């Protein structure tokens, strides 16, 4: 008991010290405008040494546009949950030199689950590896705002890393289950760095475009004002510029909106870009530099209204504008033939992701994971890695995690360490010793089945059971004695894996821009009409593609889809405008050109009938002969991971897709008619759906879901509806080597299971015959 | 090269197979491929497809085994930094790889064995002169009398046939031994055998010193004889009349022939057969060797000399300097030497001699220890793989024969490997339950199916494992000792004429009970752990099952070392032969029912069943190859009235040497009766039925072994009390 009392005393001292800091903060006026969260009444906190946090009564919408510029939002999402007993997230924040020098504090708004025990749960804020704030998690009744001062000089111009780490303990429960009830939610709209209004986060030079930042819901938006968007000449410049801007900003949820008129205001995370000849822009922009009439210009100028800057790319004519665009793009572009060591996708932990292209062994430390000790029940940590687009080892591949870890004697057998790949369980290591133990480079085989091209997340989760947790005495959930330690000397080893391009493959498209990322010839770009919706969609899509590819892609606009021929192409348009040839090549049913989006009453009924049928089928499953077979299939699936449909000799054909009416947008990929090039089609029933759908898919979580040969986005659900590829076209991406082809064969045979059995049997029979021939000729005659 | 195309084609197909086998496919694919292969093999087996299908089935099996080897090598070894797991894990791995290598070698040997050669009655043309050597050390006179008489009775021109009794028990060294009893015994034996030989009209030969054991004895015989061919019969191996007729002809066919070997057929059961009572129903252990393996070796011109029942060329032996005596298995060593000098051998798959094998478990183990140690010596001194002059197939064949005797090592490892997990919680084989199903189980099934396919009617399921286990316990130290000290072992003659009068535990049975006890505790442990540690129940299930298999075999072995008493000191041979039973002056027509070395049972027609036991009578019958009937004195041991006939059990009372020949004629003259007996036991019960049958035997023998143990402990206590 005395020990616990002592701990409480220490805690009191800490909170007293903290209270001093908070009290000082209270002097600076709290910005409370523009909050959209629920109105929450806060009462002064009575813990520790009195009121420490300035309680805020959030007013109803009282947005003041100018003030918004003073916030640099941090979280690129609508919401952020820190779940479990230990959780952390890091975010990159790009600051201009002025912003870095001027930012003084970091604010966050959070709420947490009721069951989180405040006395043993902590939320910490770390900026550039310096802890700037720590507090008990105690905002169960609503969102609470807190502000921490930043030491001067902590923020740097360029990328800064902001991390939020939470440690949660349950108030009463000690079960593993209970750890899933623990969470802290950070409100992205109330979590930001405050930049003084005078330096305001204004962007002054081209380099500052990277500091475009986020809106309160994690959005980044480039508003492209193009008065002459209907001119075919403008398309190329516009698309190249979009890619250049995307590569500069590299924000996870960035979209482009092409507009004719200059919007009056720009919200946080928005940048207005004017593109056009000097003659066209002059009416919109009085501040247009005069030099634009004679030579190319790419610069920030004052907006006609409001206290803000807009970016202008202009020149006397379109060729000169194109020159200006290339001038911007070329310094950040990656020349062809230069391979990447890492993927510059920083959405998860603010560090670059190493790209694993073959046999590699890396320590966890090099992935950015840290040695950690843990005293709770469910420990979870992880790291990110990049996988190349021609990864072809999903069926057979196995990586190895060489685990360095330790567990204390109180950990009971039956505990386990699980490895997850992109959220799918990939391996389980049971803990079987009773008296504690140390794993020294314990090899854990991790199936590569859930790996996908582009960014991948590996999580290590330790589920620890102890006698103390079974008893669960009061306060037991908060004991500090570490039970488990994970050392960053653990290594993740990938073997050399099969590499060959597979098409169609939307996951490779979203991951690394394959097959467009490395091509020498320009990509044919077909836009069915040059209007706001189609151009916005194209710009957004190419922007995403550029970031995935790590380079700005060369494009060549085509007026006719039929003129594309055997070239890699991107085709964007409403479904009714796309030629049947294009739909056919991408496995979209021809009828959908007329039927999709046109509400037919019968559709819904048909759907309902099918659902009823399915439910009946599952109800009458037992007993019938059919049921026996499906029970067998379930058993095979559950225990051995074999489905009847995977028992195939050769892959079948893709079924033509008729987009359901719930879908509003799709990205589909198929071969060109001669099967030598790849066409990617973006389509929707209407222009609005096209732009809206692309904007939705441009959100990083959804972009990462792109997969198969068709991915359908619907208004109502978060998840994309993806259809797996069955007939793949292989494209060599690596020099032909025997070793690689062997692995490719291994993967192909592992996904066409019966084919392997057939090859195995046929070769065995041949061997038997050959041996018989040999034996007849040698030795004594029978 | 004549067959370059075939070789290239085969190499190409093999390379493709290896390529496919070493693809790192996933578990699901492996599982489906395993199921496909096992089904395919089962169909081939059920259809009893032969010819090319035999090799296809073997190719299937080989592919699955190789796949297992690839997987076992690449993904199941414990990590090197866990030495406590790695060392036993690696030993287990080596043991498995040894088994796979032996499988490969035996597949090579028996992939396409030569079919049995057609029977040939040598005639026409000049016959070579033959010396028959019967080396003896300590066998008794009656046994030698039968053998010598049978040898003398062989169908061959008398002027070309010389029989030699090579007596090493009556050498000058023995007769002049310092120990007086030994010297007296040797002198008496010397005299007695000389007399016997005189009576049988055969030559007696002994020598000054017992140098180089059996090989030295036979080399001495060679110096005193001149025949072109030399037939060798062990003292208890009596030849049939047609032995020379069936074998001599091959030497005329091939001037470079040095050996015609024939199988050893045994009249009595070995201890395992006797104690498990399988002699009448199940093929003997050596039938696998003589029925298949020697035929397979013969295909590659590598059939080797087995010490007896063989005909050798003097010219060849002279070239090699006689019989080699470096190792204690002079027979195989001699064959190896002659093969490497370019001489050929032939194997005739027809039993032409009948002999005895060790009756007690201890002498059985003694015999096997000699073979194992001898083979290890040859391996050490004449390493066949690099022996110059041998063809590649011959090298592989000899390696197969020698390396076989390393089996005590893997057998011991397989026995104890599960205990590492059950008692010490070590993980020496890293695999999941699914992998075990897809790889290990498929491998084991395919292995059993291949064994059954190759040896099915000669070797029933699990019998090999049982034989290996019962030998391993005592052979392991023997093999280790010969490895450490290769020149130490000396030739010990195996005793074959013992008999067991009282049921008892073998004198070397204790380790079997200790091992059984340990395995039984491990079995209980596996049950306990299965329930107390549900999170690794799958591993416990697999390891516990493995231990249970060991326990079943170890339990069966308890029966093997529990010696049953045997009534008949000599085994009876069923014969059907007309004769005349003479009692006093009256003669009755009769039929010989069965005979043994000591007596016969005769069905007599018209005899009153009131004759007295011990009465002197005569049997008159026509010996093979004789023109006239002869009479053999017998006395009556028992009489049984069977209604129409009276069965009379009688004992032979040989008074003259000729009588020994008559007894030999009754028992040994007709070699067909042995073939018939062997064929009657040869059928394949199949994997499933065979396994069930074995399980039944094992359960019964375990209880019998434990019963004997309890009885012996009681007896021991009584003895102490007394």
From TrEMBL, chain A:
<keyword id="KW-0997">Cell inner membrane</keyword>
<feature type="transmembrane region" description="Helical">
    <location>
        <begin position="753"/>
        <end position="775"/>
    </location>
</feature>
<feature type="signal peptide">
    <location>
        <begin position="1"/>
        <end position="23"/>
    </location>
</feature>
<dbReference type="GO" id="GO:0005886">
    <property type="term" value="C:plasma membrane"/>
</dbReference>
<dbReference type="InterPro" id="IPR018513">
    <property type="entry name" value="Cell_synthase_bac"/>
</dbReference>
<comment type="function">
    <text>Binds the cellulose synthase activator, bis-(3'-5') cyclic diguanylic acid (c-di-GMP).</text>
</comment>
<keyword id="KW-0732">Signal</keyword>
<dbReference type="GO" id="GO:0030244">
    <property type="term" value="P:cellulose biosynthetic process"/>
</dbReference>
<comment type="subunit">
    <text>Tightly associated with the cellulose synthase catalytic subunit.</text>
</comment>
<keyword id="KW-1003">Cell membrane</keyword>
<comment type="similarity">
    <text>Belongs to the AcsB/BcsB family.</text>
</comment>
<keyword id="KW-1133">Transmembrane helix</keyword>
<protein>
    <recommendedName>
        <fullName>Cyclic di-GMP-binding protein</fullName>
    </recommendedName>
</protein>
<keyword id="KW-0472">Membrane</keyword>
<keyword id="KW-0973">c-di-GMP</keyword>
<comment type="pathway">
    <text>Glycan metabolism; bacterial cellulose biosynthesis.</text>
</comment>
<keyword id="KW-0812">Transmembrane</keyword>
<dbReference type="GO" id="GO:0006011">
    <property type="term" value="P:UDP-alpha-D-glucose metabolic process"/>
</dbReference>
<dbReference type="Pfam" id="PF03170">
    <property type="entry name" value="BcsB"/>
</dbReference>
<keyword id="KW-0135">Cellulose biosynthesis</keyword>
<feature type="region of interest" description="Disordered">
    <location>
        <begin position="28"/>
        <end position="54"/>
    </location>
</feature>
Automatic annotation (TrEMBL), chain B:
<dbReference type="GO" id="GO:0016760">
    <property type="term" value="F:cellulose synthase (UDP-forming) activity"/>
</dbReference>
<comment type="function">
    <text>Catalytic subunit of cellulose synthase. It polymerizes uridine 5'-diphosphate glucose to cellulose.</text>
</comment>
<dbReference type="InterPro" id="IPR029044">
    <property type="entry name" value="Nucleotide-diphossugar_trans"/>
</dbReference>
<keyword id="KW-1133">Transmembrane helix</keyword>
<keyword id="KW-0997">Cell inner membrane</keyword>
<feature type="domain" description="PilZ">
    <location>
        <begin position="567"/>
        <end position="668"/>
    </location>
</feature>
<dbReference type="GO" id="GO:0012505">
    <property type="term" value="C:endomembrane system"/>
</dbReference>
<feature type="transmembrane region" description="Helical">
    <location>
        <begin position="543"/>
        <end position="562"/>
    </location>
</feature>
<keyword id="KW-0135">Cellulose biosynthesis</keyword>
<dbReference type="GO" id="GO:0030244">
    <property type="term" value="P:cellulose biosynthetic process"/>
</dbReference>
<keyword id="KW-0808">Transferase</keyword>
<feature type="transmembrane region" description="Helical">
    <location>
        <begin position="7"/>
        <end position="25"/>
    </location>
</feature>
<comment type="pathway">
    <text>Glycan metabolism; bacterial cellulose biosynthesis.</text>
</comment>
<protein>
    <recommendedName>
        <fullName>Cellulose synthase catalytic subunit [UDP-forming]</fullName>
        <ecNumber>2.4.1.12</ecNumber>
    </recommendedName>
</protein>
<dbReference type="GO" id="GO:0005886">
    <property type="term" value="C:plasma membrane"/>
</dbReference>
<dbReference type="InterPro" id="IPR009875">
    <property type="entry name" value="PilZ_domain"/>
</dbReference>
<keyword id="KW-0472">Membrane</keyword>
<feature type="transmembrane region" description="Helical">
    <location>
        <begin position="403"/>
        <end position="424"/>
    </location>
</feature>
<feature type="transmembrane region" description="Helical">
    <location>
        <begin position="511"/>
        <end position="531"/>
    </location>
</feature>
<feature type="transmembrane region" description="Helical">
    <location>
        <begin position="52"/>
        <end position="70"/>
    </location>
</feature>
<keyword id="KW-0973">c-di-GMP</keyword>
<dbReference type="InterPro" id="IPR050321">
    <property type="entry name" value="Glycosyltr_2/OpgH_subfam"/>
</dbReference>
């Amino acid at each position: 008991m005395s020990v616990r009392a002592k701990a409480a005393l220490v805690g009191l001292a800490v909170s007293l010290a903290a209270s001093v800091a908070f009290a000082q903060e209270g002097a600076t006026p709290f910005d409370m405008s523009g909050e959209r969260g629920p109105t929450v009444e806060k009462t002064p906190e009575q813990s520790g040494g009195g009121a420490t946090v300035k309680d805020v009564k959030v007013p109803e919408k009282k947005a003041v546009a100018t003030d918004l510029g003073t916030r640099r939002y941090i979280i690129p999402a609508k919401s952020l949950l820190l779940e479990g007993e230990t959780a952390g997230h890091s975010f990159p924040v790009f600051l201009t030199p002025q912003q870095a020098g001027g930012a003084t504090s970091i604010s966050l708004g959070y709420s947490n689950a009721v069951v989180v025990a405040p006395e043993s749960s902590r939320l910490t804020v770390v900026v550039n590896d310096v802890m700037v704030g720590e507090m008990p998690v105690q905002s169960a009744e609503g969102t609470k705002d807190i502000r921490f001062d930043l030491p001067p000089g902590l923020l740097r111009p360029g990328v800064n890393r902001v991390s939020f780490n939470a440690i949660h303990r349950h108030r009463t429960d000690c079960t593993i289950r209970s750890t899933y009830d623990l969470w802290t939610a950070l409100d992205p709209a109330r979590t930001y760095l405050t930049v003084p209004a005078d330096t305001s986060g204004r962007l002054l030079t081209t380099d500052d475009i990277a500091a475009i930042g986020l809106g309160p819901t994690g959005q980044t938006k480039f508003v492209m004002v193009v008065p002459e968007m209907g001119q075919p000449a403008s398309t190329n410049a516009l698309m190249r510029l979009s890619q250049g801007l995307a590569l500069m900003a590299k924000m996870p949820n960035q979209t482009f909106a092409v507009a004719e008129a200059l919007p009056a205001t720009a919200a946080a995370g928005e940048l207005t870009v004017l593109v056009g000849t000097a003659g066209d822009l002059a009416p919109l922009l009085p501040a247009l530099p005069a030099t634009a009439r004679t030579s190319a210009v790419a610069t920030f100028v004052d907006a006609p209204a409001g206290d803000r800057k807009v970016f202008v790319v202009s020149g006397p004519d379109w060729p000169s504008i194109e020159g200006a665009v290339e001038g911007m793009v070329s310094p950040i572009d990656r020349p062809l033939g230069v391979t990447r060591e890492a993927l510059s996708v920083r959405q998860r932990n603010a560090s670059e992701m190493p790209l694993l292209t073959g046999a590699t062994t890396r320590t966890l430390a090099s992935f950015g994971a840290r040695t950690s000790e843990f005293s709770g029940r469910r420990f979870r940590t992880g790291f990110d890695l990049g996988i190349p687009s021609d990864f072809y080892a999903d069926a057979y591949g196995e990586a190895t995690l060489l685990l360095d870890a330790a567990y204390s004697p109180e950990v009971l057998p039956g505990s386990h360490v699980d490895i997850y790949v992109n959220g799918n369980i990939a391996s389980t290591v049971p803990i079987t010793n009773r008296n504690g133990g140390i794993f020294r480079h314990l090899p854990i085989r991790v199936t590569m089945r859930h790996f996908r091209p582009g960014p991948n997340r590996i999580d290590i989760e330790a589920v620890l059971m102890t006698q103390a947790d079974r008893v669960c005495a009061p306060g037991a959930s908060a004991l500090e004695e570490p039970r488990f330690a994970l050392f960053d000397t653990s290594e993740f080893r990938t073997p050399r894996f099969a590499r060959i391009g597979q098409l169609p493959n939307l996951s490779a498209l979203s991951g690394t821009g394959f097959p467009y990322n490395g091509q020498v010839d320009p990509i044919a770009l077909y836009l069915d009409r040059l209007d706001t919706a189609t151009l916005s969609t194209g710009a957004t899509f190419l922007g995403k593609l550029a970031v995935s590819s790590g380079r700005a892609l060369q494009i060549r606009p085509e007026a006719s889809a039929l003129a594309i021929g055997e070239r890699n192409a991107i085709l964007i348009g409403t479904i009714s405008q796309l030629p049947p040839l294009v739909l056919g090549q991408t496995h979209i049913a021809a009828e959908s050109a007329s039927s999709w989006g046109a509400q037919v009453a019968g559709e819904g009924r048909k759907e309902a009938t099918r659902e009823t049928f399915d439910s009946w089928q599952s109800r009458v499953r037992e007993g019938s002969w059919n049921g026996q077979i499906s029970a067998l299939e379930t058993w095979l699936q559950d225990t051995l991971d074999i489905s009847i449909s995977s028992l195939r000799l050769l892959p079948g054909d893709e079924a033509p897709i008729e987009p359901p009416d719930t879908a509003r947008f799709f990205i589909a990929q198929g071969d060109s008619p001669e099967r030598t090039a790849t066409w990617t089609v973006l389509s929707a029933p209407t222009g609005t759906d096209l732009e809206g759908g692309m904007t939705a898919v441009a959100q990083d979580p959804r972009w990462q879901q792109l997969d198969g040969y068709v991915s359908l986005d619907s208004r109502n659900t978060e998840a994309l509806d993806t259809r797996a590829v069955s007939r793949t076209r292989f494209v060599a991406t690596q020099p032909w080597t025997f070793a690689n082809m062997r692995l490719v064969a291994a993967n192909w045979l592992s996904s066409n299971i019966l084919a392997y059995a057939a090859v195995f049997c046929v070769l065995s029979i041949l061997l038997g015959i050959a041996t018989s021939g040999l034996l007849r000729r040698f030795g004594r005659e029978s | 090269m004549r067959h370059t195309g075939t070789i290239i084609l085969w190499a190409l197909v093999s390379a493709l197979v290896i390529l496919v086998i070493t693809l790192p496919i996933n578990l699901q694919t492996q599982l489906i491929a395993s199921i496909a292969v096992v089904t395919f093999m089962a169909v081939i087996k059920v259809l009893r497809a032969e010819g090319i299908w035999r090799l296809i089935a073997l190719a299937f099996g080989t592919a699955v085994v190789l796949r297992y080897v690839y997987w076992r090598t690449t993904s199941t070894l414990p990590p090197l930094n866990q030495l406590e797991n790695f060392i036993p894990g690696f030993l287990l791995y080596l043991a498995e790889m040894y088994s796979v290598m032996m499988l490969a070698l035996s597949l090579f040997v028996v992939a396409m064995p030569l079919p049995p050669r057609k029977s040939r009655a040598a005639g026409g043309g000049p016959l070579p002169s033959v010396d028959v050597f019967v080396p003896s050390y300590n066998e008794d006179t009656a046994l030698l009398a039968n053998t010598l008489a049978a040898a003398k009775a062989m169908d061959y021109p008398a002027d070309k046939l010389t029989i030699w009794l090579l007596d090493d028990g009556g050498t000058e060294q023995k007769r002049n031994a310092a120990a007086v009893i030994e010297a007296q015994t040797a002198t008496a034996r010397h005299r007695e055998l000389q007399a016997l030989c005189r009576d049988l009209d055969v030559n007696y030969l002994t020598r000054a010193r017992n140098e180089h054991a059996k090989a030295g004895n036979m080399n001495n015989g060679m110096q005193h004889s001149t025949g072109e061919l030399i037939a060798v019969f062990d003292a208890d191996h009596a030849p049939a009349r047609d032995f020379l007729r069936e074998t001599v002809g091959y030497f005329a066919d091939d001037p470079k022939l040095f050996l015609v070997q024939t199988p050893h057929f045994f009249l009595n059961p070995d201890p395992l057969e006797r104690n498990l009572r399988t002699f009448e129903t199940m093929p003997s252990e050596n039938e696998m060797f003589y029925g298949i393996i020697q035929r397979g070796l013969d295909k590659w011109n590598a059939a080797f000399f087995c010490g007896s029942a063989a005909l050798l060329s003097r010219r060849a032996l002279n070239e090699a300097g006689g019989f080699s005596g470096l190792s204690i298995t002079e027979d195989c060593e001699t064959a190896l030497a002659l093969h490497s000098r370019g001489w050929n051998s032939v194997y005739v798959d027809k039993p032409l001699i009948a002999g005895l094998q060790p009756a007690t478990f201890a002498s059985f183990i003694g015999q096997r220890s000699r073979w194992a140690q001898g083979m290890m010596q040859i391996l050490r001194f004449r390493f066949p793989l690099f022996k110059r002059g041998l063809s590649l197939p011959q090298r592989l064949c000899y390696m197969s024969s020698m390396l076989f005797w390393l089996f005590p090592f893997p057998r011991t490892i397989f026995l104890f490997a599960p205990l590492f997990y059950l008692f010490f919680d070590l993980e020496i084989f890293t695999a999941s339950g699914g992998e075990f199903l897809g790889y290990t189980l498929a491998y084991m099934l395919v292995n059993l199916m291949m064994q059954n396919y190759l040896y099915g009617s000669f070797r029933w399921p699990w019998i090999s494992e049982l034989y290996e286990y019962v030998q391993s316990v005592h052979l392991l130290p023997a093999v280790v000792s010969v490895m450490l000290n290769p020149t130490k072992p000396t030739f010990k003659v195996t005793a074959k004429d013992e008999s067991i009068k009282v049921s008892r535990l073998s004198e070397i049975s204790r380790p079997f009970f200790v091992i059984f006890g340990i395995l039984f505790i491990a079995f209980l442990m596996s049950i306990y752990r299965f329930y107390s540690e549900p999170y690794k129940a799958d591993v416990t299930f697999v390891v516990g099952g493995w231990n249970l298999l060991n326990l079943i075999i170890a339990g069966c072995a308890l029966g093997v070392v529990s010696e049953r008493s045997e009534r008949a000191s000599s085994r009876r041979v069923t014969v059907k032969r007309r004769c005349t039973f003479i009692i006093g002056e009256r003669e009755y027509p009769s039929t010989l029912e069965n005979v043994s070395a000591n007596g016969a049972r005769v069905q007599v027609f018209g005899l009153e069943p009131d004759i007295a036991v011990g009465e002197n009578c005569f049997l008159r019958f026509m010996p093979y190859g004789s023109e006239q009937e002869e009479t053999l004195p017998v006395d009556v041991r028992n009489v049984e009235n069977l209604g129409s006939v009276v069965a009379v059990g009688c004992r032979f009372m040989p008074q003259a040497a000729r009588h020994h020949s008559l007894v030999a004629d009754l028992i040994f003259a007709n070699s067909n009766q042995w073939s018939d007996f062997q064929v009657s036991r040869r059928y394949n019960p199949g994997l499933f039925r065979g396994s069930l049958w074995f399980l039944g035997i094992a359960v019964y023998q375990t209880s019998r072994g434990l019963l004997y143990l309890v009885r012996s402990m009681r007896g021991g206590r009584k003895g102490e009390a007394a």
